[in-house]
Amino acid sequence: MKKRQIKTRFLNLLTDFGFHKIFGTESSKDFLISFLNEVIKEEGLITEILYLPTKQQGFSEKERKAVFDIFCTNEKGEYFIVEMQRAKQPYFKDRSLFYTSLPIQQQAPRGVWNFKLKAVYLIAVLDFVIFDEFEDDKDFIVEHVSLLRERTKSYFSQKIKFIFIELPKFVKTEEELKTNFDKWLFSLKNMHFLQERPPSVKGEIFEELFKIVEINNLKEDEMRTYKKSVLEYRDVRDSILLAREEAREEEKISIIKKCLQKNIPLEDITFLTGFSRENILRYINSNFVSM
User: Fold this and answer.
1) Contact by Cβ (8 Å): 226, 15
2) Is the pLDDT of residue 289 over 60?
3) 247 pLDDT exceeds 90?
4) Cα atoms in the 13 Å half-sphere on the side-chain side of 13
5) Where are the domains of the chain?
6) Which of 15, 25, 188, 256 could be joined to 229 by an S-S link, Cβ 3.0–4.6 Å?
């Protein structure tokens, strides 16, 4: 039986197509300026941007390349790498370091140079949680990372800055939106679930945003690209959900093993794991669990 397709009015902004549509084109740079100024929170940091080629590499053709989602510079010559990441990747933090190193290297001119650098910002919008080591990590949606002196906790340099936005931690409802930053995160996370602009998401920039992201405004070739982007997004989400389910099942099996080793009654094991008595017996009989 085919699943019923849900008719959506607005683009999914967490797809490659949707993210690039609102942040990655010359016609949409006002959205990017608004978003960056809200995220970085340095007054007057950006009033104008120039988009740069997203494919970057080191000094030679043989060195490893990197392809950014969005790469731009402001009127002060500072650099901004904006990335959307839908799933955790091995060595993601190392990848962030590598990405910022490329605009640093490319600032070196030929000949004599005094090594004065322009700042490089990496802004990563994450559809997963990367910081969960501490109890209060769950309360912080945005993490700012800089180079610090360990002893004094003062800046060693502010020329490299990392800003990580963990969307799963943003749980505000329409009624709770107060700041433009709230409105941006709500729009990014929920746009494809909405059928109209919420009254709380007001302001000229957001009124324009909701016009731009209407699916009915897409041209035929854009629609094909968007549909492909949605399928890729769903594949990633399905893979993540499957991995989580498998991890939870492995954890439950581990609990069953430990309980049986302690001669804990089956009724108590069903309560602890959520597995039925029949499932637990099946695992035992299938040699998944050694008595």
Assistant:
1) yes
2) no
3) no
4) 24
5) 16-217, 244-285
6) 15
Element spanning 124, H or E: strand 120-126
What gap in Å lies between CA 58 and CA 61, rounded to an integer?
7
Taking the C-alpha atoms of residue 241 and residue 235, their distance in angstroms, rounded to an integer, is 10
The mean pLDDT value of the chain amounts to: 85
Q: Hey, how many other C-beta atoms are within 10 angstroms of the C-beta on 87?
A: 13
Pairing mode of beta strands 120-126, 155-166: parallel
Say if residues 47 and 75 touch (Cβ distance below 8 Å).
Answer: yes
Q: Where residue 61 falls among pLDDT bands split at 50, 70, 90?
A: low
Residue 277 corresponds to which tokens in the numbers above? Answer: 């008595």
Q: What is the pTM of this model?
A: 0.78
* Closest to 142 (Cα-Cα) out of 35, 69, 12: 35
Radius of gyration of the chain (CA): 24
Contact 203, 209 (CB under 8 A): no
**C-beta neighbour count of 287 within 10 angstroms:** 8
Question: Which residues touch 66 (CB under 8 Å, ≥6 apart)?
Answer: 55, 56, 57, 98, 99, 102
pLDDT at 22: 95
Give the C-alpha separation, 289 to 261, whole Å: 10
3-class DSSP assignment, residue 84 = strand
How many residues are there in the chain? Answer: 291
